[in-house]
Amino acid sequence: MHPPLTLHRHPMCAEIIEQFQKCHLDHPYAKFFGECTDLKIKLDKCFRQEKAVKRKANFEESKKLKERLQAYRKEAAESENVM
């Protein structure tokens, strides 16, 4: 099972998505017997790569947010100690 094949949500895989959809349109019955399997495998690999890129970006963003939160907590603790 794959996510919805919308081009605007998967820019890295747009070309493969178009090929896969065209294969399904060109081979309405043969798709059930493996005609489009190679494209499906390529599409799955592309989705995995895309997910890895997103995961890395989210991890970097979370590190930045964690650093900002720690700095804020440190400032709050210092200002509380001054009073």
Task: Write up this protein.
The chain has 83 residues and is mainly alpha-helical. It has one domain. It is built from two helices and no strands. α1 runs antiparallel to α2. It is rod-shaped and about 75 Å long. The protein starts with 13 loop residues before the first helix and ends with a helix. The model has no long low-confidence stretch (mean pLDDT 90).
| Sheet/helix structural class | mainly alpha
Average pLDDT, all residues? 90
The fraction of residues assigned to DSSP E strands is under 5%
Order of helices and strands: HH
Q: Kindly, what is the distance between the CA atoms of the first and last residues, rounded to a whole number of angstroms?
A: 59 Å
Rg, nearest Å: 23 Å
* Major sheet summary line: none
The counted number of beta strands is: 0
The low-confidence parts are none
How many distinct domains?
1
Count the helices. How many? 2
Percent of residues in helices comes to: over 70%
General shape: rod-shaped
Which structural traits does this protein have?
mainly alpha; 71% helix
